[in-house]
Design a protein that fits this description.
The protein is of the alpha/beta class. Helix content is about 45%, strand content about 10%. It has helices at about 30-50, 115-125, 135-155, 160-165, 185-205, 205-220, 225-235, 240-245, and strands at about 15-20, 25, 60-65, 85-90, 95-100. Helix 1 packs across helix 2 (about 115-125), helix 2 packs across helix 3 and helix 6 (about 205-220) packs antiparallel against helix 7 (about 225-235). The chain is globular, with a radius of gyration of 18 Å. The N and C termini lie far apart (about 45 Å).
Length: about 250
């Protein structure tokens, strides 16, 4: 593999392409996993397009084993940690880079884990179809976590089992995590946002996601903490601010 693999498929030694709404480029011998990823991506793209009322982004997905991870497309000279999916614009077209094996940092590990991770990264790709201003980290990650929970609810993924295994009291709130956070704290942060997002979908329906994304696309200045809370509460609709204030994760 080479870092230009998104530009010229002829450079992909031992890699093949599985066409779909989001084509999957995978190493020969991983056909079963590639088909599984294709289904996750197709399901997610369809649900997100409907929820956000926008076309799927023109992207590809690279399914990469650990031994090829250092050569996956990326913005930075240094490779990302193995097993951590990400979205990159360094390839043409832009790409989701999905590990063949998820990092053990992802907890809890249930049958919902991998599809939730895929839909999370796919949501980032949807959001970045338009330029977005900087927001607090919790809002930037809340949207894909809530969206992945909403997709799970739509397709009947057993989400409750997964949510029931999350530690609801890691010692901080989604707005209280500051400075450099270790891998365990980052996972706990994402899990709190998943809990908050899943409960928001239950409380308000998934229509708030379209309103929130549209509002973020319309912002022109950096979004501070106060503005971020206002945008989220307004997207929820009546009772949104009171509901947020009642949430221990927030």
């Amino acid at each position: 593999m080479a870092r230009v693999l998104g530009e010229d498929l002829s450079l992909l030694r031992d890699y093949e392409r599985l066409d779909g709404v989001v084509p999957v480029i995978y190493r020969r011998g991983a056909e079963e996993l590639a088909e599984r990823m294709r289904r996750f991506l197709e399901t997610g793209a369809g649900a997100l397009s409907e929820m956000l009322n926008t076309m799927p982004p023109g992207i590809e997905a690279f399914l990469v084993p650990d031994e090829d991870w250092d050569d996956a497309p990326r913005e930075n000279a240094r490779a990302y940690p193995p097993g951590l999916p990400y979205f990159t614009r360094s390839a043409r077209p832009p790409a989701l880079v999905l590990p063949a094996t998820l990092s053990p940092i992802f907890r809890p590990h249930t049958q919902a884990t991998y599809p939730l991770v895929v839909w999370h990264e796919l949501t980032h790709a949807f959001l970045l179809q338009k330029e977005a201003v900087r927001t607090p980290a919790w809002l930037g990650e809340f949207v894909p976590q809530a969206a992945s929970a909403a997709v799970a609810r739509r397709v009947g993924l057993p989400l409750d089992e997964h949510l029931g295994m999350i530690d609801r009291e890691p010692g901080f709130t989604v707005r209280g995590l500051r400075g450099h956070a270790g891998a365990g704290e980052q996972m706990a942060f994402q899990n709190l946002l998943l809990l908050l997002g899943a409960d928001a979908v239950e409380e308000f329906g998934d229509g708030f996601l379209k309103r929130l994304v549209r509002a973020l696309w319309e912002e022109t200045d950096v979004v501070n903490e106060e503005r971020a809370e206002e945008l989220l509460a307004d997207a929820f609709g009546p009772g949104g601010r009171e509901w947020l204030a009642s949430r221990p994760e927030f």
